[in-house]
Write a structure and sequence with these properties.
mainly beta, five-stranded antiparallel β-sheet, three-stranded antiparallel β-sheet, single chain, binds zinc ion
C-alpha cells in the first residue's frame, strides 16, 4: 500500500476537490418501520456476498446505540425499498444500510463501532 500523493491535484487548479457523491441514502435515519415486518440478518447474506468474499452474517458487530455485540444474522432487516435497513434487535438503532443500484452498491455502517470477522487459517 502506498499513501495517496499529496500532489495529485494540479497546483494551478483552484477548484475545490471533487466531493464524493452523498449516496442514495435518505438523510433521515429514523424512518418508521412497523414491528414484526422484518427478516433476520441472514437476509443480508446474498446482498453482502456481492461485496465481500467472506460471509459477514457470522461476523460480530458492536452497536453504537447500546454497545451490544452480536452477529449480523441477529439484526432485524427491513426492506427492500429504498434499500435494506438493519436495526439492532436490542435498541432499534440503525446498524447497517445497503442500497444496490445500477453498477454500484452503497453500504452504510455508521451504527457499528467495529466488526469482528472470522478468517480461515
Ligand atoms: Zn443496540
Amino acid at each position: 500500500m502506498t499513501k495517496p500523493s499529496q500532489h495529485a491535484q494540479d497546483a494551478h487548479d483552484t477548484r475545490p476537490p471533487p466531493r464524493p457523491a452523498p449516496g442514495p441514502f435518505p438523510d433521515e435515519l429514523d424512518v418508521p418501520y412497523l414491528d414484526g415486518e422484518y427478516e433476520d440478518g441472514n437476509a443480508l447474506a446474498g446482498p453482502l456476498s456481492e461485496i465481500f468474499a467472506v460471509d459477514l452474517t457470522a461476523a460480530e458487530g458492536r452497536c453504537t446505540g447500546c454497545g451490544t455485540t452480536g452477529p449480523i444474522a441477529r439484526l432485524h432487516v427491513y426492506g427492500p425499498a429504498p434499500g435494506l435497513v438493519a436495526r439492532c434487535p436490542d435498541c432499534g438503532q440503525v446498524v447497517l444500510r445497503l442500497v444496490r443500484g445500477g453498477d454500484a452498491a452503497w453500504l452504510d455502517v455508521r451504527g457499528m463501532v467495529s466488526l469482528r470477522i472470522r478468517i480461515e487459517g
